[in-house]
Amino acid sequence: MPHKAREKWLLELHLQHQVRRRSYRRQVLTVQLSILFLLFALWEAAGRLRWIDVLLFSYPTKVFGQIWKDACSGELWVHLGMTVGETVTGFVLGTLFGTLLAVLIWWSPFLSKVLDPYMVVFNSMPKVALGPIFIVMFGAGFNAIVVTTLSITVIITTLVVYNSFNEVDPQFIKLIRSFGGGKKDIFRKVVLPASYPAIVSTLKVNVGMAWVGVIVGEFLVAKNGLGYQIIYGFQVFNFTLVMSSLLIIAVVAALMYQGVAYIEKKLLSSR
């Protein structure tokens, strides 16, 4: 086959592959949206026909009405801004500190042996029980909630990333050493690039963990935020407010997850 003809053939194959990928993605998105629409339709029908207790579960039109009312009054943006700020701060700091701690204990096997039982014990402790201690230490506000979030995200990040560092193929490490590379070269050229998938997976896990930490913290201490809205809704038996807050949390968490997925695509494509 002539060179130009082969190039044209390969280009056509690539274009066909891209078309199939786009078609597949559209099919997946269509099914996802159809399932979501069906769930909301069933929820609405169950509420309207009294198949469920609307006092507890409400139904979509009432929930969206609550969201619209709070958005128009401006109250929603105060609570949403506070919770998203706390979540993003805890998410970023937890991932950063956890990854740095993983690097530190990988770099020093002695430190790894010393800290290993403490990390296991701290990870197994119920973080809700630590909440009151954090409130006394850091005050009833933003700092205590972020620290509660860090208590969940840092150790999980450290354990996952450190285990990924240790699972790197030792043959690659031997290759770097055979060319005279030191520990810095091994980490920069082998260990860190090989651990990108684990770091990204940790980011995905931390999206959920950060929300758990923030909402738990807001349950305990906050006077603003979506967690506070949930507690207030329970206290006054306004479960439509509760469901609207949960729906907003789900949407924002999904957007954060998509952001992490975008980072994953960019990071892994650059390897």
Automatic annotation (TrEMBL):
UniProt keyword annotations, A-Z: Cell membrane, Membrane, Transmembrane, Transmembrane helix, Transport
InterPro entries registered for this protein in UniProt: MetI-like, MetI-like_sf
Coarse class of the protein's main subcellular location: membrane
Topology term for the membrane: Multi-pass membrane protein
Transmembrane parts of this sequence: 28-46, 88-107, 128-161, 230-257
Residue intervals of the ABC transmembrane type-1 domain: 80-258
Domain of life, source organism: Bacteria
Pfam families from the UniProt entry: BPD_transp_1 (PF00528)
SUPFAM superfamilies membership: MetI-like
Localization per record: Cell membrane
Family from the record: Belongs to the binding-protein-dependent transport system permease family.
Protein name: ABC transporter permease
Source organism of the structure: Paenibacillus lacisoli
Organism classification: Bacteria, Bacillati, Bacillota, Bacilli, Bacillales
